[in-house]
Amino acid sequence: MTNTDIRLVVLDMAGTTVADDGLVEQAFLAAADRLGVEAGTERHQQMLDYVRATMGESKISVFRHLFEDEERAQLANVAFETAYHDLIDAGHCAALPGAAEAIGQLRADGRAVALTTGFSRATQDRILTALGWQDIADLTLCPADAGRGRPYPDMPLTALLRTRTDSVRQLAVVGDTGYDMLTGTRSGAGVVAGVLTGAHREERLRADGATHVLGSIAELPALLAG
Questions:
Q1: CB-count burial class (<10 Å; 0-12, 13-18, 19+) for 118
Q2: Phi, psi (rounded to 5 degrees) for 140
Q3: In the predicted model, what is the mean pLDDT of residues 42-50?
Q4: 81/168 same-domain check
Q5: Per-residue pLDDT for 1 more than 80?
Q6: End of a domain among 89, 108, 131?
């Protein structure tokens, strides 16, 4: 199969189609403060480093690793989501340049588009509403909709099943993190494309399985057009 055979494109949101601008880190800092992790301490820095390294992973999974206690992990996740929602409501949410146009072109070319995230459904819906993107894609998925989040293949494979796509080789997975690339390779996607508008650089994207690295999502329709 060639790139032109792609029938389903699974796109990440924050850092890929939606500008992050440090919002994830800001929300994490608010969550850490809520849980009593003192800023400036070695523990605080270790946690921040882990958050940066695992960008793209399901957020509750990140907090379960950091706090190793389900109750504290859930409290941290709620604090994170509350802080992230406040940032969205304050106007700190924008599409990356060319993202909406790229999604529109992909669908005009006859490809189904699914938007995926490591956030909860509530946070994903808040972002979609803020951008006016409720109907921009064929499907939107969060980890709770599919079973597990990244780096597992559950979301792309769920998108494939729900859109009745014939083969994993007709699937493209696109994101800005190594976790997105691992998700793509584990799902058997024919195209696993990294973009340089988010968390991880080309070296990390390639190491985790990127078949292509693009400057931004705006370049994707041309790549798939052959």
A1: buried
A2: -125, 140
A3: 90
A4: no
A5: no
A6: 89
